[in-house]
Amino acid sequence: MAAISRLIVKFNSYYADKPVLTIMITNAVLGGIADTVAQSLTAIRMKSRRSLNLGKDISDGIEMPEYNEKDYAKDFLTPHKKLPPPFDFERLTRFMSYGFIMSPVQFQWFAFLSRAFPITKESATVPAMKRVAFDQLIFAPIGTLPSAPNNTALMDLGLACFFTFMTVTEGGGRRAVTRKFQEVYLPALKANFMLWPAVQILNFRIIPLQFQIVSKYGA
Length: 219
Fold this sequence. Notes:
- By secondary structure, the protein is mainly α.
- Helix content is 76%, strand content 0%.
């Protein structure tokens, strides 16, 4: 707890001096941590699934094929399709870059919501709900990171911008971006609407302004 308190104090001091840069660096780091967790969980699930399948094959008494030296060397040196994928550092860099680049936009957006719908002791819930409505109906379709099987730790950053940025930085062109939107944009937006309105009410209602963007990245 003492370490967390020191981190909060340090963050507040940097935020008071350079708020935008502090948010940019913090969100880049959190984006990297979240993607690392997502990739690690995916590898663990694939490894567990492969172990279960292997155990089932052995228990079923499946006869193992005979290997000669060439076959053994080939199988040993060639990555198996069922093995967990290696850690994708390029993807990690893309997630961190996106968090870094989008932070100034989000900073201005949250500042606008704070000015437009001020939360006071006398009135808190209604302004928070208005912020959520604006955030989900205007900003979320444009700038929210989706809820996907491999990205469950990183849900809310920017949909349209996120898909475009990721596809382009992966080397895709206009057709690839269009295909990405056709395949996953609407499902991701629906998933966003199912979870984040409730989370954002608490975020706007309870979390101080300087932590609201950060809390979305760490959720």
